[in-house]
């Protein structure tokens, strides 16, 4: 029924079948768009509200850093040994006029001066000398092969620091005799290239200088042993 005097028009205001189809498709597309938008908004909200799942940073200790550095150094050394048939260890001497060289000389000289004053005191003090013989014993034992049990037992018996301390308490310790035994044993264990160094040790009279040079020659013997091991690996 028309209102307010309006006439109802048939055929002009009624939508056609094609218009109805396009309208239905538009509404369907709009509905799909709204659903997609709501889904995206929901996912974004869910992601933003969830806490970040990041693990805490791992703390690396100083020992781990140094161990890594040593491993890299060992790999470099192993590579050099493998590719360089002339590779061998050499004793590195610090320049005398360098700061490190002067500091090393001052510290070492101070140690040997203290040892000299202790051995010449009245009564003598032997504790530092005994500790040196203990260190010498361990170095000599490191040169022995697994089958050298006889010499091993002899070294442990002669350089028994507990026995030496008991002798020192009664002023019965023979420091020079112990040094002579060490030099003789070094002569049995050293490479032929060190024979001249052993002869010079035997000719040295001052006991403090003897002990000082014993450690110097032991350092050379350790280097010889390392080079022999490197040569055996090739």
UniProtKB/TrEMBL annotation:
<dbReference type="GO" id="GO:0007165">
    <property type="term" value="P:signal transduction"/>
</dbReference>
<feature type="compositionally biased region" description="Low complexity">
    <location>
        <begin position="36"/>
        <end position="55"/>
    </location>
</feature>
<comment type="similarity">
    <text>Belongs to the TCP11 family.</text>
</comment>
<protein>
    <submittedName>
        <fullName>TCP11L2 isoform 5</fullName>
    </submittedName>
</protein>
<dbReference type="Pfam" id="PF05794">
    <property type="entry name" value="Tcp11"/>
</dbReference>
<feature type="compositionally biased region" description="Low complexity">
    <location>
        <begin position="17"/>
        <end position="29"/>
    </location>
</feature>
<feature type="region of interest" description="Disordered">
    <location>
        <begin position="1"/>
        <end position="57"/>
    </location>
</feature>
<dbReference type="InterPro" id="IPR008862">
    <property type="entry name" value="Tcp11"/>
</dbReference>
